Amino acid sequence: MKTLLFASLLVLGLAGCATPPETSSSLVDRQELKVDPDIIYAADVTELFQKRVEQPGGGSLLQVQFAVEARSDADMAWKVTWFDANGMVVQGVGEGYRKATLLTGQTRYFTATAPHERVASFQLHLREPR
Amino acid sequence: MLIRAVAISISLAVLAGCAAPTRYIDPAADDGPVAMTMDYRDFEKAATEAVEDMLASGAVNNPDGGRSIMVVSRITNDTMQRIDTDQLTKKIRVSLLRSGKVVTTTAVGLNGAEDEMTKKARELRESDEFDQSGVQKKGTLQAPDLSLSGKILQRNHKVGKEQQVEYYVQLSLTDLASGLAIWEGETPIIKRGSDKSVTW
Question: Is the domain covering B34-103+145-200 a CATH 1.10.600 domain?
Answer without folding.
Answer: no
